[in-house]
Every structure is written in C-alpha cells, then in structure tokens.
Design a protein that fits this description.
This protein has 12 helices and 14 strands. The chain is an alpha/beta fold. Bound molecules: phosphoenolpyruvate and manganese (II) ion. The site of phosphoenolpyruvate (PEP) has 12 residues, from loops.
Length: 348
C-alpha cells in the first residue's frame, strides 16, 4: 500500500508508480477515501527492490506491506481514518445509524411501503430498507419483483431518505445503480459469492454508493467476513458496512444464533463500521428490541431493522419479524441512550 505525501497523486505520478510495479508483476489500484487516496499494490508486493524504488520517489511518504489477508480492511490500514456515510449520518462519529423498512416491498400495494417509509422517518430512521429482489429458501415463495424498484425510489423521493436493497446478480446490480439506490445489500446467502463481491466492487468504484455486507449465514468466520469486504474495497470504493445478522444453526426458538457479540471482535480487527441486523438474527418481532439494544451495547454503529406499518399485511419476513413504527420509535429512544452510554470498558 503506497501512502502519498499529498492527499492524492497526479496522473503522471500514478503512471510512474504503475510502470515500476508492472515490472514486478503487480498493478496499482487507487482507493479513494474521504480524506485521502491511497494506492494499493495488487499482486505480490513483497519485492524489496520494488519497495525501495517506490519509497525513493519524492511524492511517496511510505510503502506499507501489511501482512494481513485483508490489508485494506485491517485496523492498521491507512484506510482506518475513512468514515462511511449513509445519507446524513457519518458512521462511527457518535451518531447511531438507523435503517428500517420492509423485508419485501409488495408491488401490488405500494402505499404500504410509502406509509412505512414516512412512519419510520418520523420514528427517527435515517435510511429506508426495502427488498426488491428476494433470496427465498422456498422456490415457490414470492421472489420479489423488479417493479418494486420504482416503489423503493419513490419512497426515497417522498421521504428524502437514502435507500438500501439487496442485489444478487449483475443485472440487479446494474438496475439498482441506474435507479440511484444508495446502499447495496449483499445478503447472507451471497456473503461468500466472490464473483458477486467482485462485480459489486467494480460497479461501485468511483460512485457515492455504500455496501451493506451481511455476515455469511453459516457461522461465517471473522476472517471470511472481513475478507469478503476486502474483495469489494480493493476495487477502489471503501464504503463497506459489516452487518452481523445471526448464524445457523439457530438458537432453539430464534431464527438464527444471535451474533451481535461479534461486534467488538470485528472492531478490534477492522476499521469498518458495524450495523447489526437484529430482525434476521432472532426472527420474531417480540425479540427484536432486546437484540437491537444488545448490539448497541456491544458497540454497533447502527441497526438495520425490518419495520412495517401493518406487519400482517407484509410479504417475506415481515409478518413474523417486522416491528411497527411505534415500537421502532421506542426502540430508537432506548438505543440512543445505550449508545450515548457506551464507552469501551477498560479491562486493565
Ligand atoms: C433481508 O435483509 O431481507 C435478508 C434476506 O437478509 P439475509 O440476507 O440476512 O437473510
Ligand atoms: Mn427479510
């Protein structure tokens, strides 16, 4: 990783770096942070001669060769000062991000989504979630409908809030980006789909778009989780949010094994913000608030919650796990109080 002396390099300087690393079989990938751009050396960067030549250049501050499988996501990476923004919220800067909305948008009843969008905004949400295309275990269950993309964007227009939706393939990715979706969600089933991760990384490079990357549903390890984010970030856009959402096998009575306790472990290893999804973790509306508050106590930077004005009229997971905007409003008040209390506990 090449750290320049200035915020970013000129085209001529990048060309000079590229010429040097190419001799050693590597290439340069600029990673555009909000404060500065750093230049990742993609390939085997452990050539002493190459590093010496790069460090000899007058505009290079230093060359870091972090021996980590996720050198961009690593807490020691120069990206550690990068802050991901969703709408008006800068994650990790003292504000708790609340994303809320339908599991699945019902294309036949758009008014339900608009009502939920307005109600969660009034409850204090900063961003809307709404599933357009759905990964369903049952092939006969409603799989989503591309028409819902217009409904999602209309919800954004009406409320002025940014929107999040899951994409599962390149076509959905293109449609979502063309429509102006602000946060692309990669679901738990695709959390280790490396070709999708690469496609998303390449598609968002240079765009003001963030990715909400769910944790793999089958006990995705810390390394797998952070490495999946590395796949995206190494294409140049560092706006990745890690989203624990419970793992399988589930805790008897819950949909999944709640995993909000992974938050401090992620934070020890990576600078990336953590936004916990309590809804898929516990899978029942009644248990969502406790899980959400636990996540905030563990240091989460935000919550992504399924909410619906009338859960029983919802699709997908909404009848079981969506909370109402009224419950959401109470939860947000409590979550903010826990967030304000939160200080890392000194252990020595
Ligand atoms: C969802 O967010 O509705 C969803 C399907 O999530 P997950 O990928 O975590 O199951
Ligand atoms: Mn869902």
């Amino acid at each position: 990783m090449i750290l320049p002396k200035n915020h970013r390099l000129t085209d001529a300087q990048v060309a000079e770096l590229t010429a040097i690393v190419t001799e050693f079989g590597c290439r340069i990938q600029p990673i555009v942070g909000d404060v500065r751009t750093i230049y990742a050396i993609v390939g085997d960067e452990r050539h002493e001669l190459m590093i010496n030549r790069l460090e000899g250049l007058p505009y290079v501050d230093r060359v870091d060769t972090i021996q980590s499988p996720h050198k961009l996501m690593d807490i020691k990476s120069d990206l550690a000062s990068h802050r991901v923004k969703v709408g008006g919220v800068t994650l990790g800067n003292g504000q708790l991000l609340i994303m809320a909305g339908h599991c699945t948008i019902d294309p036949k009843n758009p008014h339900l989504f608009y009502e939920t969008a307005q109600a969660v905004k009034e409850a204090g949400a900063h961003a809307l979630r709404g599933g357009v295309w759905k990964p369903r275990t049952n092939p006969y269950a409603f799989q989503g409908d591309h028409k819902s993309l217009d409904i999602l964007m209309e919800g954004a227009r009406r409320t002025g809030l940014p929107v999040d939706t899951e994409v599962m393939d390149e076509e959905q990715l293109k449609l979502a980006l063309a429509a102006g979706v602000h946060v692309l969600q990669i679901g738990a089933r695709n959390a280790l789909n490396y070709s999708l991760l690469r496609q998303v990384g390449a598609a968002i490079a240079g765009k003001p778009v963030a990715v909400l990357l769910k944790r793999g549903m089958h006990t995705g390890t810390l390394n797998e989780f952070i490495s999946a984010a590395e796949y995206i970030v190494n294409f140049g856009n560092p706006n990745v949010i890690l989203c624990p959402r419970g793992t399988q096998p589930g805790l008897d009575g819950y949909r999944n094994q709640p995993d909000e306790a992974i938050t401090p472990l992620l934070k020890e290893r990576t600078w990336a913000p953590v936004v916990v999804d309590p809804s898929h973790s516990v899978g029942k509306a009644a248990y969502v608030p406790a899980c959400a508050l636990a996540a905030v106590a563990y240091g989460a930077d935000g919550l992504c919650i399924e909410a619906h004005v009338s859960p029983s009229h919802g699709l997908g997971d909404d009848p079981k796990q969506a909370i109402t905007p009224t419950v959401l409003a109470g939860l947000i008040t409590q979550a903010k109080a826990v967030h304000a209390l939160h200080r890392p506990v000194a252990v020595s």
